[in-house]
Design goal:
481 residues, alpha/beta, Immunoglobulin-like, TIM Barrel, 3 domains, 8-stranded parallel barrel, 7-stranded mixed beta sheet, 14 helices, 35% helix
């Protein structure tokens, strides 16, 4: 008769062998899936149609030097018009590591768009004393991203998580909470004029899972966002209406994004429809795709269906927070909640983060799925931004490795996949010769370009843009280098 220990080992071994599952926490296994390459039918054709355009340039030199026929030149794309984004909101421990410089170099090599954090409780420890200099990944990293010519998005203007205690307070007068929230939103917009992209109120429908007496939930009720038995009675649109009523007059030309974690949430649809029906102007729809369990993960069919569904609203789509794991994932929320609660407890109590191991086999899975996911998303004409959420595995959200770098700051296979796509496959670089009229005509990816050539012993260069929203036929004067 087998002992209990041997029985458990046999069960563990055969369940892993047969089902690809690792038993943890007694009840909730990690699922290991095999990536089946997506078909991506028509994706290359859509990328060619929607991400590229034709351009005609007549080249002249500033000093009047005449160019000879068949003059050779080189063209290099130096930036994308499309926003490839990364988050500078999550890797809190990285600035203390000796590889922080490498981290920034890896980030800027891929991304021209950065989400920067404005988590309220992180920057205002005492009421009325906002400090954006102190917390990691705040003022210094914001200034660095600006120096790299990245477009920045502030995240967020308001949220019901990461709150100071005078906002989460369960008994404080809601009218006083209202005054502080309005003051806070005004502070963000006026104190950070270098940012014109903002997440508005983040994940509005998620408030229904919070404590009834939470200060921010009482504030939403005060605005008219009534919830009964976990269901919205009057809908979440009121909240966006109030936030935009504060933000838009301060930043009339700002770019404001609605953002939510569950694309199937009927109340997110209700929120969007309310804004559209009531002329509450916003610029884009943000959709998070954190694939931490099987039920929240995407196949080729479900990703395309989601993009098509939200395209019907007539607004650009921002894939605002992408997580693809390099470890096993949970089957559903029940197992994920156990891991999330352990992570949350460790963070709140200053303990070591309980992080799952990034596995070599799963890193390949992560890389292959990411390549297909990005290719399909980039091919959809309504997608405007794709943002990877966690850059490294040092202290990942929920302790589940989904970084482009490992915990020591080294690139994982997924990093090289994105580098190949963003910097090679989806960039236009070539050499050629001028025709008899000194013209260059080509079809390339939308973005910014640099041209260089040597003529009569001198070196010249110039810059130009190829855009889907302007005339791409003009004269270009090259300056001596």
């Amino acid at each position: 008769m087998l002992s209990k220990g041997i029985k458990f080992f046999c069960f563990y071994f055969f369940s892993f062998f047969l089902f690809g599952e690792e038993i943890i926490d007694g009840n909730y296994p990690l699922i290991y899936e095999k990536h089946i390459p997506w078909k991506l039918s028509g994706a290359d054709d859509r990328i060619e149609e929607f991400r590229k355009g034709n351009i005609s340039i007549e080249v002249i030199l500033e000093d009047g030097t005449e160019l000879k026929p068949s003059q050779s030149f080189e063209i290099k794309q130096i930036n994308h018009e499309f926003y490839f984004g990364g988050s500078l909101s999550t890797d809190w421990s990285v600035p203390s590591r000796d590889w922080f410089g490498d981290f920034k170099n890896y980030f800027s090599n891929l991304f021209n768009y950065a989400t920067v954090n404005f988590y309220w409780a992180s920057h205002e420890k005492a009421r009325g004393k906002w400090n954006y200099e102190e917390a990691p990944l705040s003022r210094d990293i914001l200034n660095w991203a600006l120096s790299e010519n990245m477009t920045l998005k502030g995240h967020p203007l308001a949220w019901h998580q990461v709150l100071p205690n005078w906002i989460s307070n369960e008994t404080r007068d809601v009218k006083e909470i209202d005054k502080d929230i309005r003051k806070h939103i005004k502070l963000l917009i006026t104190e950070f004029p270098e940012i014109d992209h903002w997440d508005t109120y983040n994940e509005v429908p998620g408030i229904r899972w919070e404590n009834d007496n939470l200060g921010m939930r009482r504030w939403q009720k005060y605005l008219g966002n009534v919830i009964k038995d976990g269901e919205f009675v009057s809908g979440p649109g009121f909240v966006i209406q109030e936030v935009m009523g504060i933000a838009r007059p301060l930043l009339p030309n700002g770019f404001f994004v609605l953002n939510h974690y569950d694309h199937t949430d009927k109340y997110y649809h209700q929120q969007i429809k309310y804004c559209l029906d009531n002329n509450i102007a916003f610029e884009a729809i943000g959709l998070q795709t954190h694939m931490h369990n099987v039920t929240q993960s995407f196949s080729e069919e479900t990703l395309w269906k989601m993009l098509e569904t939200y395209t019907d609203y007539g607004k650009p789509i921002h894939l605002s927070e992408i997580s693809i794991l390099s470890c096993g994932k949970y089957e559903d929320w029940k197992g994920l909640k156990v891991q999330n609660d352990k992570w949350d407890y460790a963070v709140n109590n200053g303990l070591k983060i309980p992080t799952l191991d990034s596995l070599e086999k799963e890193e390949l899975f992560q890389a292959h799925l990411t390549k297909d996911f990005y290719t399909l998303a980039f091919s959809h004409p309504n997608v405007e931004v794709i943002t990877w959420w966690t850059m490294s595995d040092l202290d990942p959200w929920r302790g589940m490795p989904c970084g482009l770098l490992d915990a020591e700051g080294n690139p994982k296979p997924v990093y090289h996949v994105l580098d190949q796509l963003i910097n090679h496959d989806w960039k236009t670089n070539f050499s050629g010769v001028l025709d008899s009229s000194n013209k260059i005509e080509f079809r390339g990816f939308f973005g910014d370009y640099e041209i260089s050539l040597n003529a009569n012993g001198k070196s010249y260069n110039g810059n130009f843009s190829l855009s889907k929203n302007k005339n791409n036929s003009y004269k270009l004067m090259l300056n001596e280098m």
